[in-house]
Design a protein that fits this description.
Layout lengths: L2 H40 L2 H35 L1 H34 L6 H30 L5 E3 L2 E3 L3 H5 L4 H29 L4 H36 L1 H7 L6 E2 L3 E8 L4 E8 L2 H7 L5 E2 L13 H30 L8 H9 L3 H15 L4 E3 L3 E2 H4 L6 H28 L16
Length: about 450
Amino acid sequence: MDDFIAARSQMALSLGFHIIFSCIGMVMPFFMAVSHFYWIKTRKPVYLNITKAWSKGVAIFFATGAVSGTVLSFELGLLWPNFMKHAGPIFGMPFSLEGTAFFIEAIALGFFLYGWNRFNQWFHWITGVIVGLSGLASGILVVAANAWMNTPAGFDFIDGQFTNIDPIAAMFNKAWFSQALHMCLAAFIATGFAVAGVHAYMVLRKKNVLFHTKAFHIAAIFAVIAALLQPISGDRSAKHVAKYQPAKLAAMEAHFETTKSAPLIIGGIPDEENKTVKYALEIPGFLSFLAHGDFEAEVKGLDSIPPENHPPVAITHYAFQVMVGLGSLLAAISIIYLIALVAKKSWLNKKWMLKLFVISVPLGYIAIEAGWIVTEVGRQPWIINGIMRTKDAVTPMPGIVYSFYLFTAVYASLALIVTFLLQRQIKMVPEIYDVNNQNENEH
């Protein structure tokens, strides 16, 4: 492994772990706030117990997200100094604001964790809401910085120099809203299904049934709403990519030739040498519709883009298929759950319904990882789209290969520790919360 590959691999590894921690940290506080609200309104102990249990999970992921995010900050400076030298003054604003949001989140979390029976109950609840809002703001600001790499704005690039810098225009670039919306919904989907699936598993095992049933439904509602909204966000994102990053869209769809009424490809194995896709299911005209809202519209293929600017087609295509496939599966589960809520109440207590959520526990996070592969790999060979190539941005420090191995071990250990802490937290839910021990007025 050469230094260039090691530097990129270390950054990918760090991002791959951090995105999971940050998504959970963004979303879990909202679950906690809802259960806390129910406790204040109903005074049913089960909601107080859920709130306190979830607050411990929020604290765990706040800590791990802070650690992994700090590592990323150092890596940007150590591994990508050429990139930061030019890009830092342009898109540094969202990173600075993200630090402010993180600071507010830390204060609010401290108030919430240690404010039981010390603050007015509504002020205490508001601190929990602020934890969620500031965490969500942090995620949006970081995604805005990433969106700038896809659709750079806020500067003039003249004779290799970045001039006339406008940080506001850079932060609110053309991709920031569609990308932030898509990422936030994905975080709610992944975390909602994961949390609901864990509680569904405990219900199936008949452990603390009332506690886990109430918790399951809170998380499931968030997941279902986000999963049903995501296709709208995905359609917006697809049209944006078609307009501003046609090479990425072509790689996503393994679309080699510029054509009108372009078919949507489902599955398939791209053959980059022969410019074909084997074993794919094609839906005529549908790619043109998704990209431009017109079944007859022309969609640019890789043949219209210089070969040296082609993204890795196979990786991008497979990752896109995984993201869309898993997203569609979770949307289907959401429709089933919504039908159960509205018309088939008996389904809610069926084992098959709970098993659907148990199976879905890892799926949302796999889809998120696949989506980030599409975003990053699909932009290659550019780190700043159309401006700076990735190979020109990295200046690996000596011994980066060994650093990559070290960080791999560190992140693997961190994942094991977090898994252990969460498993212990679930087991610590006391038996007194079990449905058999609840008073009738708690049902």
